[in-house]
Amino acid sequence: MEKKVTDLTKQEIAKMFPVVLAKHNIHWKVIYMSEKELLLKALGTLILRIEHFGSTSIANIKAKYTIDILIEISEENNFKNVIVNKLRAIGYDYILQNENNSKHMVFVKGYDATGEKGQTFHIHMGPSNHIIWERIYFRDYLIEKPELAERYESLKIILAEKYKFDRVGYRIAKTDFIQKITEEAKRYYRSHDR
Questions:
Q1: Which of 2, 30, 42, 87 is most solvent-facing, going by the fewest CB within 10 Å?
Q2: What is the pLDDT of residue 100?
Q3: Distance (Å, rounded) from C-alpha 84 to C-alpha 92?
Q4: Do the Cβ atoms of 59 and 143 come closer than 8 Å?
Protein backbone atom coordinates (compact mmCIF):
# COMPACT_ATOMS: atom_id res chain seq x y z
CA MET A 1 0.00 0.00 0.00
CA GLU A 2 1.30 3.45 -0.94
CA LYS A 3 2.28 5.68 1.98
CA LYS A 4 0.24 8.89 2.26
CA VAL A 5 1.43 12.24 3.59
CA THR A 6 -0.73 11.69 6.67
CA ASP A 7 1.35 8.58 7.43
CA LEU A 8 4.60 10.55 7.69
CA THR A 9 6.22 11.36 11.02
CA LYS A 10 6.79 14.98 12.08
CA GLN A 11 10.51 14.50 11.34
CA GLU A 12 9.80 13.19 7.83
CA ILE A 13 7.41 16.08 7.15
CA ALA A 14 9.96 18.63 8.41
CA LYS A 15 12.68 17.28 6.13
CA MET A 16 10.47 16.82 3.09
CA PHE A 17 8.49 20.07 3.37
CA PRO A 18 10.76 22.83 4.73
CA VAL A 19 9.41 26.31 5.46
CA VAL A 20 10.15 28.34 2.34
CA LEU A 21 8.76 31.83 1.80
CA ALA A 22 8.16 33.28 -1.65
CA LYS A 23 7.55 36.82 -2.85
CA HIS A 24 3.84 37.59 -3.07
CA ASN A 25 2.34 36.19 -6.26
CA ILE A 26 -0.64 38.01 -7.77
CA HIS A 27 -1.82 34.66 -9.19
CA TRP A 28 -2.50 33.25 -5.71
CA LYS A 29 -5.94 34.89 -5.74
CA VAL A 30 -6.74 33.29 -9.12
CA ILE A 31 -5.54 29.90 -7.85
CA TYR A 32 -7.79 30.31 -4.80
CA MET A 33 -10.82 31.21 -6.95
CA SER A 34 -10.29 28.15 -9.13
CA GLU A 35 -10.04 25.87 -6.10
CA LYS A 36 -13.08 27.55 -4.55
CA GLU A 37 -15.14 26.57 -7.61
CA LEU A 38 -13.92 22.97 -7.33
CA LEU A 39 -14.84 22.89 -3.63
CA LEU A 40 -18.28 24.37 -4.25
CA LYS A 41 -18.94 21.68 -6.86
CA ALA A 42 -17.71 18.93 -4.53
CA LEU A 43 -19.49 20.04 -1.37
CA GLY A 44 -22.40 22.12 -2.68
CA THR A 45 -24.76 23.29 0.04
CA LEU A 46 -22.59 21.76 2.78
CA ILE A 47 -20.51 24.96 2.42
CA LEU A 48 -22.09 27.93 4.18
CA ARG A 49 -19.16 30.31 3.59
CA ILE A 50 -15.71 30.05 2.06
CA GLU A 51 -12.78 32.46 2.51
CA HIS A 52 -9.19 32.81 1.32
CA PHE A 53 -7.00 33.59 4.33
CA GLY A 54 -3.40 33.28 5.43
CA SER A 55 -0.47 35.16 3.96
CA THR A 56 -1.29 34.35 0.34
CA SER A 57 -4.46 36.44 0.78
CA ILE A 58 -2.52 39.53 1.94
CA ALA A 59 -0.94 41.57 -0.85
CA ASN A 60 2.76 42.38 -0.88
CA ILE A 61 3.98 40.03 1.85
CA LYS A 62 5.99 36.87 1.49
CA ALA A 63 4.24 33.57 2.08
CA LYS A 64 4.63 29.85 1.78
CA TYR A 65 3.21 28.64 -1.54
CA THR A 66 0.22 27.10 0.24
CA ILE A 67 -3.25 28.54 -0.37
CA ASP A 68 -5.15 28.57 2.95
CA ILE A 69 -8.92 28.23 2.75
CA LEU A 70 -11.47 28.59 5.53
CA ILE A 71 -14.83 26.83 5.11
CA GLU A 72 -17.86 27.27 7.30
CA ILE A 73 -20.14 24.27 7.76
CA SER A 74 -23.11 23.73 10.04
CA GLU A 75 -22.78 22.23 13.52
CA GLU A 76 -24.71 19.19 12.25
CA ASN A 77 -22.15 18.52 9.50
CA ASN A 78 -19.06 19.08 11.63
CA PHE A 79 -16.73 16.03 11.53
CA LYS A 80 -19.07 14.13 9.18
CA ASN A 81 -17.62 11.40 6.97
CA VAL A 82 -19.63 12.65 3.99
CA ILE A 83 -17.39 15.74 3.89
CA VAL A 84 -14.21 13.71 4.34
CA ASN A 85 -15.21 11.35 1.51
CA LYS A 86 -16.19 14.15 -0.89
CA LEU A 87 -12.89 15.96 -0.33
CA ARG A 88 -10.85 12.76 -0.61
CA ALA A 89 -12.49 12.24 -4.00
CA ILE A 90 -10.88 15.51 -5.22
CA GLY A 91 -7.44 14.77 -3.80
CA TYR A 92 -7.53 16.01 -0.20
CA ASP A 93 -6.18 14.17 2.84
CA TYR A 94 -7.96 14.62 6.17
CA ILE A 95 -6.24 15.59 9.43
CA LEU A 96 -8.02 16.23 12.73
CA GLN A 97 -6.54 19.45 14.12
CA ASN A 98 -6.53 20.19 17.84
CA GLU A 99 -5.53 23.82 18.21
CA ASN A 100 -5.72 25.33 21.70
CA ASN A 101 -7.92 22.38 22.76
CA SER A 102 -10.34 23.33 20.01
CA LYS A 103 -10.72 20.60 17.40
CA HIS A 104 -11.53 21.27 13.78
CA MET A 105 -11.28 19.56 10.42
CA VAL A 106 -8.22 20.19 8.27
CA PHE A 107 -7.71 18.95 4.72
CA VAL A 108 -4.47 19.16 2.72
CA LYS A 109 -3.80 18.70 -0.98
CA GLY A 110 -0.69 18.89 -3.12
CA TYR A 111 1.49 16.59 -1.05
CA ASP A 112 2.41 12.96 -1.16
CA ALA A 113 4.90 10.83 0.75
CA THR A 114 7.65 11.74 -1.74
CA GLY A 115 7.17 15.51 -1.60
CA GLU A 116 4.97 18.28 -2.99
CA LYS A 117 3.11 17.30 -6.14
CA GLY A 118 1.84 20.63 -7.37
CA GLN A 119 0.02 23.55 -5.81
CA THR A 120 -0.59 22.96 -2.11
CA PHE A 121 -3.82 23.79 -0.31
CA HIS A 122 -4.82 23.71 3.36
CA ILE A 123 -8.51 23.82 4.27
CA HIS A 124 -9.57 24.63 7.83
CA MET A 125 -13.22 23.83 8.40
CA GLY A 126 -15.69 24.45 11.18
CA PRO A 127 -18.95 26.13 12.19
CA SER A 128 -19.22 29.92 12.46
CA ASN A 129 -18.78 29.91 16.25
CA HIS A 130 -15.40 28.13 16.06
CA ILE A 131 -12.29 30.11 17.02
CA ILE A 132 -10.75 29.48 13.58
CA TRP A 133 -13.05 32.20 12.20
CA GLU A 134 -11.10 34.81 14.17
CA ARG A 135 -8.44 34.42 11.47
CA ILE A 136 -10.59 36.63 9.24
CA TYR A 137 -10.10 39.53 11.68
CA PHE A 138 -6.33 39.05 11.41
CA ARG A 139 -6.42 38.87 7.60
CA ASP A 140 -8.63 41.92 7.17
CA TYR A 141 -6.67 43.99 9.66
CA LEU A 142 -3.34 43.27 7.94
CA ILE A 143 -4.89 44.15 4.58
CA GLU A 144 -6.18 47.42 6.03
CA LYS A 145 -2.94 48.21 7.93
CA PRO A 146 0.03 47.58 5.56
CA GLU A 147 2.56 48.59 8.25
CA LEU A 148 1.35 45.67 10.39
CA ALA A 149 1.56 43.37 7.38
CA GLU A 150 5.20 44.45 6.95
CA ARG A 151 5.92 43.69 10.61
CA TYR A 152 4.32 40.27 10.20
CA GLU A 153 6.38 39.61 7.08
CA SER A 154 9.60 40.56 8.92
CA LEU A 155 8.74 38.16 11.73
CA LYS A 156 7.96 35.39 9.24
CA ILE A 157 11.31 35.85 7.47
CA ILE A 158 13.24 35.52 10.74
CA LEU A 159 11.20 32.52 11.86
CA ALA A 160 11.38 30.79 8.47
CA GLU A 161 15.16 30.78 8.76
CA LYS A 162 15.13 29.61 12.39
CA TYR A 163 12.45 26.92 11.85
CA LYS A 164 13.17 25.95 8.26
CA PHE A 165 12.84 22.25 9.07
CA ASP A 166 10.18 22.57 11.75
CA ARG A 167 6.81 23.61 10.32
CA VAL A 168 5.04 23.19 13.66
CA GLY A 169 7.68 25.25 15.46
CA TYR A 170 7.33 27.96 12.80
CA ARG A 171 3.55 28.06 13.25
CA ILE A 172 3.78 28.13 17.06
CA ALA A 173 6.46 30.86 17.04
CA LYS A 174 4.05 33.18 15.18
CA THR A 175 1.23 32.60 17.68
CA ASP A 176 1.91 35.48 20.11
CA PHE A 177 2.02 38.05 17.30
CA ILE A 178 -1.11 36.64 15.64
CA GLN A 179 -3.07 36.52 18.89
CA LYS A 180 -2.07 40.06 19.87
CA ILE A 181 -2.99 41.50 16.47
CA THR A 182 -6.21 39.47 16.29
CA GLU A 183 -7.37 40.90 19.63
CA GLU A 184 -6.49 44.40 18.42
CA ALA A 185 -8.38 43.73 15.18
CA LYS A 186 -11.47 42.48 17.02
CA ARG A 187 -11.57 45.63 19.16
CA TYR A 188 -11.03 47.80 16.07
CA TYR A 189 -13.76 46.18 13.97
CA ARG A 190 -16.26 45.99 16.81
CA SER A 191 -15.81 49.72 17.43
CA HIS A 192 -16.30 50.41 13.71
CA ASP A 193 -19.59 48.47 13.42
CA ARG A 194 -18.20 45.80 11.16
A1: 2
A2: 67
A3: 8
A4: yes
Q: How far is CA 132 from CA 10, 27, 103, 106, 168, in A?
A: 23, 25, 10, 11, 17
Q: From CA 126, how far away is CA 133, in angstroms rounded?
A: 8
Question: How much is the CA Rg of the chain, to the nearest whole Å?
Answer: 17
Q: Which residue intervals of the chain are DSSP H helices? A: 10-16, 28-43, 81-88, 135-144, 146-162, 167-173, 175-191
Q: What is the pLDDT of residues 67-99, one digit of tens each?
A: 999 999 999 999 999 999 999 999 999 998 876
Q: Which helix (H) or strand (E) holds 102?
A: strand 102-112
**How far is it, in rounded angstroms, from Cα 137 to Cα 171?**
18
- Residue 99 forms beta bridges with which residues? 102
pTM: 0.91
Contact 127, 73 (CB under 8 A): yes
**Which residues pair with residue 50 across a beta bridge?**
71
